Amino acid sequence: MPAEEEQQQRPFRRKLHGLGKRVGNLGGGVVRRFRKRPCSSVAELAGPVQPSVGTSGREESRFDLLSSLRGFNPFPATQTASALSCFPARFCQQASIYPAQTCQELMAVGTRLWGPGAAQSLLRVKIYEFAIFMDGQQARQSKVKNKYANNTAKAVGDANFYRDLRSSKDIEMSLMVRASRNLPIKLLHAEYEKILKRRIQRVGGVVQDTALLQLLDCFREENIPPSIKEGDSVKKGTLLVFRKEGNGRLRARANDHELADVSSTKLCQAVFDLYLGDQPVSRKAKRIAGESFFKLDAGQQYEPPQDALVCPVVVGNACMAVA
Fold first, then answer.
1. Based on C-alpha coordinates, what's the Rg of the chain?
2. For the domain that residue 179 is a member of, what is the CATH number?
3. Member of which family (predicted)?
4. Hey, which end of the chain has fewer CB within 10 Å, N or C?
């Protein structure tokens, strides 16, 4: 984590240490260790709701079976988010929720961890898992694809490419975030507020952005849907979906509840800057997303990233491991 963000988050880490067992039933021995040792870094959350406070990335997540290789219903009526354990290779938004049913391809997955550095990785805890999706057809025809088509290998390491991708107005994207443990709501709201305000300034926006304030308001304790709460925390397994549309519209859902429907190009950029920007939650996931973008070639079958967090079989927005 950059030195600037490390310094800004020290007070937050001290708060988190004091929470002890509140942060997700970490287990007595591990909690005691965390109280004695300073964390090497506290991550940026991935976007409202399934907030988190981690520091680096690995992976994991899942869904159910019933709708066919056509798509993925993020909120199956017969299944709760906590039952899921992998991400689908394809994500199809329901026509009943969005103007028309459209499908997006999986670009990258990752995990947010929190705790001591890599040398003590056994002491780190998983805060949330995430997945990034893009509309494949739009990506193939996009201005970003045309701009970098002649040198894709160089583009994957070019910061300007990711800024263009994050800010693209002709590629719709979705972000899925799932909490890996119960997360205190007040702590999450405060951290999201700091992070998104910082990110929106980074992409050229302002902290008084009306859409940003509306989005943050949705994550106050009194506005969190009861079905995703457990005491004063957001439940482990809660699935958040953020969808960025080309006209600057951002829609956020938690399981089957709509949290926000706002319009702000800069807010859309700020949310995806968390994963595709200069200081991403996971540099590995960012690079994989860039590589996946250039694999979306017309006339070729797209193969999603190979990862333990990706479902081997997808049916609707469901998945099931195959023996």
1. 19
2. 3.50.70.10
3. Belongs to the chalcone isomerase family.
4. C
